């Protein structure tokens, strides 16, 4: 009898399952029930397409192949199109359901799901129509395509998803222009909310009691859209703060209008206009707020009480015993007095909204209970703690158990301490950039950050026993660049808190390294990284060192994502250790600084990013089903640093199509566990040993010491993604070699080449 009760009740009150497990089961029950009763062969119009945005989110979270296949069957039924007219002269964008309304956003929301499916298995036919329609639309002079609030959900995420696939900046340019036009039509600047469209703007239109009439589902579309857009907007986008500020302000405005029972009424400011609960708007609001909390935009203490009340309504009132989602206002455009909305009122888009909210709630609940992330953080802490705990006290050089190569070239062994500190900090800087919290991981970060800031000060204090060897050798240029790179990767958390004296000391030491004439190899990028950092802090950069490096790096590019180390190609991992990360970061820093030269830095950056994406794809394919990768070339004791570009591109949220966050997480974790399982990678003091997989001194080069090997932390860059990010929460996925050797489908590989050309600006 107990089993029967559990099987039919959606409230999930049994004790042995975590809250997250209960919500995961709820997601599957709701979605399975919907798909069981609704064939995927349905139109590509907005209502079905909105459901599929939720279904794809459920697929990513659960890994349930039936969900992906359901959306793919829907896409194939609709020929991967929205409205199907091919006569551009008749394409319309106002309201209409016929095939000539190609530019109407309700027929474009399907492109979100097509883009998601393309990113899983990149085949051009999946996004061919999306590119044709959107790129035609962007070529027209009109800007009023999004004249109703729903349209912002329908199409804004299409723009950012297509940008990520194509890196065509017109998508971002038009995104901003179109939204500004929408704001001029229906945005209430005073309230921070949107009217459904121009017909409902106050005071021309009023609610039953003479108030402003903000429609809950309309504003739900917008808040959810802003979350989806922020998820995909690139760092450094010129209008990023515009979208961030709008999202935060709107979330605050929405939260204030929640009813005591947890839902939002259809007319948000006038509950009497159309009283009673409504699920679609409530679910979209819940999704948006949870995403904001999970990604650091919204304060947890302020917004979680709102979310918890909304979630209680969604699961205790809206969710029915047959796993249908009730109290969804039928298709319409406004809050209608007297309209019946009850437990039997369900709709495809309402289910999609519920799935979005539920998936984001799981990400929230699992933030502090992720075993894979715990493995990563514990390993990063194990590497970092012996270094930083000693250096913070000025005792690293006293206590570090130093090991050098058997064929050491007799340089001053004190170079090892700068190598240890600089390379370690470059690897863990993204992790330390996350906000403080009271979790076990948060305590690890807090402790490491405190030690790190003291260590940074000691590194440049001539009176400290741990003052690093900044003079007397060329190696200082190399590891000073890793220190500068750590500042670039966590500028607000690791550079800004330093006292003025320490900052001035770094500037002096960095500039003093101009005395070193680097060889024409990857060493040029060490100079460029330091000088680009000086440009970022407006400390007087040597622009010639930067630009001449960029020109040389371009000369050394040999194609398909690989760089030669100087004029001769060497088949090793220096494209991983130095070229891709430091080239990208140097361009980005000089671009951020606003320095104007002959270089079109934006185009250089875009091209370098595409090359890094290609190289990341190669690295992912290098990882065998057993969690190993090819061991070749010099400096192989750098261990996991060989995978740095893959980790970097994952941290940047710029993984190429066909390479998912989940498969990268699984592949990197497999490599780490394979490499570090024996414990022989650490000596009795807790410091790294020379070797690749264990203690293997015979593979060291003449310049190798165990400080060099802290470059292995460069594979830990994805720790800079919050614990709620899909990188950590999406269901496990097999990486490419697992698929290939396991007789599964996997993406075909194509010839790849540069598509971006650069010329001097003047």
UniProtKB/TrEMBL annotation:
Q: Name the InterPro entries for this protein.
A: 6-hairpin_glycosidase_sf, 6hp_glycosidase-like_sf, DUF2264_N, Glyco_hydro_88, UCP014753
Listed under GO biological process in this entry are:
carbohydrate metabolic process
Cited Pfam families: DUF2264 (PF10022), Glyco_hydro_88 (PF07470)
Is this entry keyworded Hydrolase? yes
Q: Per the database record, which ranges form the DUF2264 domain? A: 372-735
Keywords attached to this entry: Hydrolase
Instruction: List GO molecular-function terms, semicolon-separated.
Output: hydrolase activity
Instruction: Say yes or no: keyword Disulfide bond present.
Output: no
**Matches recorded under SUPFAM superfamilies:** Six-hairpin glycosidases
Q: What is this protein called?
A: DUF2264 domain-containing protein
From which source organism is this entry? Bacteroides stercoris
């Amino acid at each position: 009898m107990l089993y029967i009760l559990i099987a039919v009740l959606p409230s999930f009150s049994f004790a042995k399952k975590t809250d997250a497990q209960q919500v995961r089961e709820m997601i599957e029950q709701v979605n399975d029930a919907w798909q069981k009763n609704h064939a995927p062969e349905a139109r590509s119009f907005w209502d079905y397409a909105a459901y599929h945005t939720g279904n794809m989110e459920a697929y990513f979270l659960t890994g349930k192949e039936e969900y992906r296949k359901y959306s793919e069957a829907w896409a194939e039924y609709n020929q991967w199109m929205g409205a199907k007219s091919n006569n551009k002269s008749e394409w319309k964008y106002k309201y209409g359901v016929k095939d000539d309304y190609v530019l109407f956003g309700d027929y474009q929301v399907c492109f979100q799901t097509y883009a998601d499916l393309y990113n899983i298995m990149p085949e051009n036919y999946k996004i061919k129509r999306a590119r044709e329609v959107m790129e035609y639309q962007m070529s027209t002079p009109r800007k009023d395509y999004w004249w109703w609030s729903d349209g912002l959900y329908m199409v804004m995420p299409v723009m950012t998803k297509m940008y990520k696939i194509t890196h065509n900046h017109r998508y971002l340019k038009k995104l901003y222009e179109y939204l500004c036009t929408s704001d001029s039509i229906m945005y209430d600047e005073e309230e921070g909310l949107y009217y459904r469209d121009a017909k409902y703007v106050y005071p021309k239109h009023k609610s039953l009691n003479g108030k402003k009439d903000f429609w809950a589902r309309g504003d739900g579309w917008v808040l959810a859209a802003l979350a989806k857009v922020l998820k995909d907007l690139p760092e450094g986008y010129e209008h990023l703060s515009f979208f961030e500020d709008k999202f935060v302000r709107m979330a605050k405005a929405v939260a204030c209008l929640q009813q005591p029972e947890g839902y939002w009424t259809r007319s948000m400011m006038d509950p009497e206009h159309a009283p009673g609960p409504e699920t679609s708007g409530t679910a979209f609001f819940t999704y948006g707020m949870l995403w904001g909390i999970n990604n650091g935009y919204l304060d947890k203490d302020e917004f979680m009480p709102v979310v918890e009340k909304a979630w209680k309504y969604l699961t205790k009132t809206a969710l029915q015993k047959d796993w249908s989602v009730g109290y969804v206002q039928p298709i319409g455009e406004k809050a209608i007095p007297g309209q019946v909305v009850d437990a039997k009122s369900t709709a495809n888009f309402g289910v999609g909204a519920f799935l979005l909210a539920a998936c984001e709630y799981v990400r929230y609940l699992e933030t502090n209970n992720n075993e894979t992330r715990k493995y990563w953080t514990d390993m990063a802490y194990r590497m970092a703690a012996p270094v930083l705990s000693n250096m913070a006290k000025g005792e690293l050089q006293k206590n570090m158990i130093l090991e050098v190569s058997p064929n050491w070239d007799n340089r001053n062994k004190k170079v090892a301490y700068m190598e240890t500190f600089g390379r370690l900090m470059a690897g863990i800087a993204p992790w330390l950039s996350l906000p403080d919290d009271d979790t076990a991981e948060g305590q690890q970060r807090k402790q490491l950050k405190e030690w790190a800031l003291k260590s940074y000060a000691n590194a440049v204090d001539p009176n400290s026993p741990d003052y690093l060897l900044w003079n007397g050798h060329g190696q200082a240029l190399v590891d000073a660049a890793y220190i500068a790179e750590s500042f670039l990767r966590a500028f607000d958390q690791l550079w800004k808190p330093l006292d003025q004296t320490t900052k001035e000391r770094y500037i002096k030491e960095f500039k003093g390294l101009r005395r070193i004439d680097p060889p024409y190899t990857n060493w040029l990028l060490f100079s460029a990284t330091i000088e680009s950092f000086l440009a970022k802090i407006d400390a007087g950069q040597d622009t010639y060192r930067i630009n001449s490096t960029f020109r040389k790096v371009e000369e050394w590019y040999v194609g398909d994502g690989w760089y030669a180390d100087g004029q001769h190609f060497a088949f090793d991992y220096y494209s991983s250790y130095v070229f891709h990360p430091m080239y990208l970061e140097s361009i980005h820093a000089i671009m951020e600084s606003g320095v104007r030269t002959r270089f079109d830095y934006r185009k250089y950056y875009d091209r370098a990013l595409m090359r890094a994406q290609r190289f990341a794809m190669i690295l992912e394919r290098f990882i065998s089903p057993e969690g190993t990768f090819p061991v070749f070339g010099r400096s192989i004791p750098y261990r996991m640093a060989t995978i740095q570009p893959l980790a970097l591109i994952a941290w940047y949220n710029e993984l190429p199509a066909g390479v998912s966050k989940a498969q990268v997480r699984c592949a990197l974790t497999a490599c780490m566990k394979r490499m570090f399982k024996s414990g022989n990678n650490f000596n009795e003091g807790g410091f790294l040993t020379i070797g690749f997989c264990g203690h293997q001194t015979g593979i060291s080069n003449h310049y190798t010491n165990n400080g060099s090997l802290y470059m292995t932390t460069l594979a830990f860059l994805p720790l800079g993604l919050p614990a709620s990010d899909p990188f950590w929460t999406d269901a496990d996925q097999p990486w490419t070699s697992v698929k290939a050797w396991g007789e599964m489908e996997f993406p075909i590989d194509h010839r790849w080449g540069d598509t971006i050309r650069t010329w001097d600006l003047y």
